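Dear support,

Our group has been running a series of protein-ligand predictions, and this particular one with S-adenosylmethionine is the one our PI (initials K.S.) wants archived with full inputs and outputs. We had some confusion internally about which version of the output was final, so please treat the block below as the authoritative record. The input we submitted was:
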Amino acid sequence: MSYCQCQGIENTFDRRLAEAQLQRERRRGPQRTTLMLVEALRAQGVAGRTLLDIGGGVGAVQRLLLESGAAGVTGIDASSAYLEAARQEARQRGFEPRVRYRHGNFVELAPDIDPADIVTLDRVICCYDDMKGLVTASASKARGVYGVVFPRSAWWTRLGVRLLNLSQRIKGSTFRMFAHSTEDVESLLRAQGLSRIYRRTRGIWQVAVFTRAAGAA
Ligand SMILES: C[S@@+](CC[C@H](N)C(=O)[O-])C[C@H]1O[C@@H](n2cnc3c(N)ncnc32)[C@H](O)[C@@H]1O
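Confirmed final output from the archive:
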């Protein structure tokens, strides 16, 4: 990730936004697409499995899978404020013994990160410029299941992202969003031995789950 995008993430996903997102989740529950992802993962079996949650933000996927009996979670996030919010929330709910956190760009940390039974990226691919590096490195860590939420490929999502980036530029922010093509993302996952078993859309988002055939690397 470029220095600018890294700095943009730190500045955008800051303490104020982390606190606002936690408050929103306490009032209204997690995002609908997060719940769709978690339901699809539960259908594959979560109890006793390990989770690697990349860009987990304030930690909704982690908490929901821990409540479903996941054995342990590694959370990696490029935003120190979001990571700290996830850590505090895990502590308050008594999950701390089952969670580990690392701050930083997952693509750079990847060589040092253990594989997990389940890997998730909930609304993360759209925040990262090197989609190929992120998807390939994260897929290589998924022993069984890979779950992802990212924008649908459509002219109106690409237009929305351009408008958002224009407003970021006007505000002087270096953070940019990306509307990566579905086929580009899925072909990288296929090359890593993962096959799609679930896909639903909601608004601008698509929720997809992939599994690795038994015995595949
Ligand atoms: C839009 S937020 C989504 C947070 C959460 N998953 C959710 O759905 O509420 C994107 C998150 O991805 C993180 N992120 C983006 N690129 C990353 C990378 N290369 N490595 C680690 N975290 C990353 C950001 O710091 C941020 O917390």
